[in-house]
Amino acid sequence: MALLDILEYPDPRLRTVAKPVATVDERIRTLASDMLDTMYDAPGIGLAASQVNVHERVIVVDISEEQDEPHVFVNPDYEKLGDDIEYQEGCLSVPGYYEKVSRSDKIRVKALNLDGETFELVAEDLLAICIQHEIDHLDGKLFVDYLSNLKRTRIRKKLEKQHKQMAS
Ligand code: GNR
Ligand code: NI
Known about the structure:
The chain is an alpha+beta fold. 29% of the residues lie in helices and 26% in strands. It contains three helices and seven strands; from the N terminus they run H-E-E-E-E-E-E-E-H-H. The chain is globular and about 45 Å long. The two termini are 30 Å apart. Residues 91-93, 133, 137 line the site of nickel (II) ion.
């Protein structure tokens, strides 16, 4: 069990575009395992490698109540199948803030599993929303980017103040 530190907005490292994983090896399996530990500990329903300052295309998701349905996606890609719906999102990198974001309610995801094999999954509702939120992280994108400039600036200033207080 290993817990990783989660970067918080507006840390510029969260804006890094993650690189594709070339080979799914022991290093990637350890990363995914540590990311799941970190996600469950937080607790959260998803985590992208970008959030733990590893800029490679790996995400983990588990929306189950029992925290016993882990999904790992390496080099994920998706197409939208559904309609856009609004959902109140949160983010472990934007702690304490929840705002409505519009995303597709159904997607088809293609990715590699931890054996390096390609698989496909049709995801709906919260699982679909969470996977889209995580893939955004891999592209350096955060849910606050969908909000008004006013809302995003307010959130940024409050978190910056909190980070300064914690540092002093
Ligand atoms: O724990 C999380 N909850 C959540 C709720 C609504 C939409 C997306 C999410 S993902 C978030 C964890 C996180 O920050 N993943 O990047
Ligand atoms: Ni997030």
